[in-house]
Amino acid sequence: MNARAANEHGRKLYYATCASCHDDGDSTPLATRSELMLNSALWYPWPNNFVLTVLNGVGGPGDAPGPIMPPLRNALSDRDILAIGDYLRQSRLNRPTWPVERYQVDRLRRATSPPQ
Ligand code: HEC
Question: Can you tell me which atom of ligand 1 is nearest the CA of 68?
């Protein structure tokens, strides 16, 4: 898959999976939707925080009450997660894609996989 096709894949996945809760690419920030371009996870030169957030979500039982992001580890492949990150970095931050391979996402996935 070439870079442009990967980016289109990331864009579609973002709108299908994330945009209901996050920004929709419009210029008006909404209090109820986090603007991902303001999030440090996307600005880091390495994607670990971004990948771990998507795999494991935010909040939940035992955490302080507040809005929750569900774990998406079963909904997205390693390639999907990188494609979304690449799409967001390019379209929102005008940054290059992360210099990582899929196996690095797989490592984070396995390192944080919940007990069966
Ligand atoms: C059901 C709603 C929901 C969906 C769907 C969702 N998120 Fe989130 N997301 C949240 C909430 C709530 C937070 C935590 C509050 C915040 O950071 O504004 C969050 C936080 C984040 C953060 C910041 C984490 C941090 O530690 O600062 C990132 C990055 C993120 N989401 C990316 C995504 C991506 C990418 C997708 C799609 C694959 C996605 N989210 C889907 C609700 C959602």
Answer: 12
The minimum-distance atom of ligand 1 relative to the CA of 40 is 27
Q: Identify whether the C-beta of residue 25 lies closer than 8 Å to the C-beta of residue 91.
A: yes
User: Average pLDDT in the 78-88 region?
Assistant: 94
pLDDT for 52 equals: 96
Asked if pLDDT for residue 112 goes beyond 80, the answer is yes
Look at phi and psi of residue 114 and say left if phi exceeds 0, alpha if psi is from -120 to 50, else beta.
beta
Question: How far is ligand 1, taken at its centre, from the CA of residue 69, in Å?
Answer: 5
Rounded distance, CA 81 to CA 16, Å? 13
Q: Best of 11, 15, 18 to mutate for ligand 1, by most ligand atoms within 8 A of CB?
A: 18
**Is pLDDT above 70 for 2?**
no
